[in-house]
């Protein structure tokens, strides 16, 4: 028998309204482990190059991992993949919550969604069964309303719903997939892809608890994590969430401010983790217990998810929609020069109601604000909005306009790079990588992020490799973990970008990539400050699946996923010329604070990219993975004519 995984992949052809079930063999699961690598397998096998990202030929894949549903922290995540409508490259995004574990309990490891329904529909999956249902009455509803109505229709309050909001229906190019109304597959526009397919939601419910091959070993690992948590580096994440990062970034000059013009923000204390904790977390005003205002995912001790509530003032907050993370506080806050925390909580709520990626949305508005302040954008362009930095009300208004594709918001719904091209204005203020807006870790301050933002297959992303601080000051605390990855003590300065740092990037990228295949939380499982280290990942996979995996084998899964994404991009014509950053990062030095005068060194980044290709086993001129590399990773099928896998109906 199989352990951990369900052994079934659901295929939904919306154009034909036909549902089939595939039963892959054990070798398939062990090679890809689920999640992102599994999704890439289907995208490369079953979708032709050149597909319109918002056309019926694009395929949306939703997959969990072989260990999803196991009773241990950080185990319930889903990866969504498709061709991105924002970048035209591979799209890839993860979310936590209860939906992933419920999909596994419902009897499936993944869902492959093709075509376009003739009218709005939702997919209902329960205890090994699946059906398409009419969703015309749900179209146009925000996430909280739609979730409540689906649960009422199905007669079960425990049904978990992964859905799009109106932003996805309107095909905003950075629309999110939402579950629990506050867990987002946010980046790369997967919500727009689902909206283009007339699919409102995927509702799941199941009672088939996945079985572990070695329950005592799994239980011991879970206890180890729970015991270590209070003294771990991740502990503060439980109390303050990712918002605790604001103060640290301000201190080192890495708090992205006014559209990456500075690394320091005068209003940082008003939007920091302690301010959110004391003034906005649900129950804090009434002095309720410590866990109030902190939500969690199944079996997780960290409880990092913020829940905010405000019943008074101009910006009220509904706790159903969670609360802002570090990235959201920055993109809507310091990026836009806004220090009104109530407004930032409201912007986050709007994004979760409508299904918008908070990182891209805030960054797009910040771009518009800088372009407006430069005089290139006028009130006539913006429909009367005064888009000055610090204008909290304009921020709220424009977020809603983007979600609804109304007025100036319709243009910004295309993303900042397309908006700049359409207006022929503001291109010098873009902060993009492959057309995706940068998250709140500054490549001018963190050279490793410059490399990662440039080479990452799905655009600028901060959760695809460890950061420079892990290479520098943190190394001595996690020496054993880094040595297990083949990373020696650093000889170069932390702010270097030579061959040693490239090696560090690749090795940690493989770990993070593995996490997105087995679908575990990168705040719980990883190479440095996380609760569990790389060897613990080996124990986890062994205890759940019964496979005698090694760390090298698992790291190859991570490398396999990186190469699959690269091959997807190469066949879309996306090679070395797109492994770059927007001009602002090179030409506009930061102003103020410890990072005053810094910008990205163009020649150093160019050399680092070449070195990255070399160490990855890719052609150094084009970035194409060599045949030898593909063969080593059991991906030589990518250079052969595709062979269709049998799909068994059920």
Radius of gyration: 23 Å
The helix tally amounts to 26
CATH C-level label of the largest domain: Mainly Alpha
Q: Quickly count the domains.
A: 3
Q: Poorly predicted ranges (pLDDT <50, ≥5 residues)?
A: 645-650
Biggest β-sheet, characterized? 6 strands, mixed
Through-space gap between termini: 19 Å
Shape: globular
Level-2 CATH architecture of the largest domain: Orthogonal Bundle
Q: Which topology of the largest domain does CATH recognise?
A: Aldehyde Ferredoxin Oxidoreductase Protein, subunit A, domain 2
Oligomer: single chain
Taking strands numbered 1, 2, ... along the chain, how are they ordered across the largest sheet?
2-1-6-3-4-5
Bin the strand percentage.
5-15%
Task: Write up this protein.
By secondary structure, this protein is an alpha+beta fold. It has 3 domains: 9-205, Aldehyde ferredoxin oxidoreductase, N-terminal domain (Aldehyde Ferredoxin Oxidoreductase,  A, domain 1, 4-Layer Sandwich); 233-430, Orthogonal Bundle (Aldehyde Ferredoxin Oxidoreductase Protein, subunit A, domain 2); 447-639, Aldehyde Ferredoxin Oxidoreductase Protein, subunit A, domain 3 (Orthogonal Bundle), CATH 1.10.599. Helices cover 38% and strands 10% of the residues. The chain contains 26 helices and 16 strands. The strands form 4 sheets. It has a 6-stranded mixed sheet with strand order 2-1-6-3-4-5. Strands 8-7-12-9-10-11 form a 6-stranded mixed sheet. A hairpin with a 2-residue loop joins strand 7 and strand 8. Helix 2 (35-46) crosses helix 21, helix 11 (326-334) packs parallel to helix 13 and helix 21 crosses helix 25 (602-616). It is globular, with a radius of gyration of 23 Å.
């Amino acid at each position: 028998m199989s352990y951990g995984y369900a052994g079934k992949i659901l295929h939904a052809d919306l154009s034909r309204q036909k549902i089939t079930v595939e039963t892959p063999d054990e070798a398939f699961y062990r090679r890809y482990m689920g999640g992102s690598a599994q999704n890439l397998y289907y995208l490369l096998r079953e979708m032709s190059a050149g597909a319109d990202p918002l056309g019926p030929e694009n395929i949306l894949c939703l997959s969990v991992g072989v260990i999803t549903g196991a009773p241990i922290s950080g185990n319930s995540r889903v990866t969504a993949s498709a061709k991105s409508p924002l970048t035209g490259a591979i799209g890839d995004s993860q979310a936590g919550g209860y939906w992933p574990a419920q999909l596994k309990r419902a009897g499936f490891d993944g869902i492959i969604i093709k075509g376009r329904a003739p009218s709005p529909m939702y997919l209902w999956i329960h205890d090994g069964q699946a059906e398409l249902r009419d969703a015309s009455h749900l179209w146009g509803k925000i996430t909280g309303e739609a979730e409540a109505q689906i649960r009422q229709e199905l007669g079960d309050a425990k049904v978990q719903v992964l859905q799009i909001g109106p932003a996805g229906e309107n095909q905003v190019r950075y629309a999110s997939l939402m579950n629990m109304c506050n867990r987002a597959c946010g980046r790369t526009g997967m919500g727009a892809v689902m909206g283009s397919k007339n699919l409102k939601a995927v509702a799941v419910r199941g009672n088939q608890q996945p079985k572990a091959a070695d329950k005592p070993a799994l239980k011991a690992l879970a206890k180890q994590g729970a015991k270590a948590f209070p003294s771990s580096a991740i502990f503060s994440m439980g109390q303050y969430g990712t918002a605790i990062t604001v103060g640290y970034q301000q201190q080192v000059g890495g708090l992205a401010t006014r559209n990456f013009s500075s690394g320091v923000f005068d209003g940082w204390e008003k939007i920091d983790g302690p301010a959110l904790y004391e003034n906005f977390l649900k129950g804090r005003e009434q002095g309720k217990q410590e866990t109030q205002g902190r939500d969690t995912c199944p079996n997780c001790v960290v409880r990092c998810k913020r829940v905010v509530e405000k019943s008074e003032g101009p910006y009220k907050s509904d706790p159903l929609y969670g609360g802002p993370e570090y990235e959201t506080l920055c993109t809507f806050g310091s990026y836009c020069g806004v220090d009104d925390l109530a407004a930032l909580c409201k912007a986050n709520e709007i994004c979760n109601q409508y299904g918008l990626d908070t990182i891209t949305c805030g960054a797009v508005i910040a771009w518009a604000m800088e372009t407006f302040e430069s005089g290139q954008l006028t009130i006539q362009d913006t429909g009367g909005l005064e888009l000055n930095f610090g204008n909290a009300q304009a921020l709220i208004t424009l977020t809603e306009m983007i979600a609804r594709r109304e007025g100036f918001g319709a243009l910004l719904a295309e993303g900042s790079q397309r908006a700049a091209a359409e207006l022929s204005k503001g291109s010098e203020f873009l902060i993009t990588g492959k057309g995706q807006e940068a998250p709140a870790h500054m490549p001018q301050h963190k050279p490793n992020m410059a490399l990662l933002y440039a080479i990452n297959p799905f655009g600028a992303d901060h959760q695809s490799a460890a950061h420079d601080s892990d290479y520098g000051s943190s190394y001595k605390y996690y020496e054993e973990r880094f040595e297990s990855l083949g990373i020696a003590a650093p000889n170069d300065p932390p702010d270097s970008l030579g061959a040693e740092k490239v090696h560090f990037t690749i090795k940690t990228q493989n770990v993070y990539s593995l996490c997105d295949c087995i679908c575990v939380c990168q705040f719980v499982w990883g190479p440095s400050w996380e609760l569990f280290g790389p060897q613990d990942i080996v124990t986890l996979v062994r205890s759940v699946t019964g496979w005698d995996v090694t760390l090298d084998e698992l790291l190859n899964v991570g490398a396999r996923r990186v190469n699959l994404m690269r091959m997807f991009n190469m066949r879309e014509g996306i090679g070395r010329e797109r492994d770059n950053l927007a001009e602002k990062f090179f030409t506009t030095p930061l102003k103020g604070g410890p990072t005053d005068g810094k910008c990205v060194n163009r020649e150093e980044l160019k050399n680092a990219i070449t070195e990255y290709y070399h160490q990855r086993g890719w052609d150094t001129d084009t970035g194409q993975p060599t045949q030898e590399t593909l063969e080593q990773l059991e991906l030589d099928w990518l250079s052969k004519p595709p062979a269709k896998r049998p799909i068994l109906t059920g």
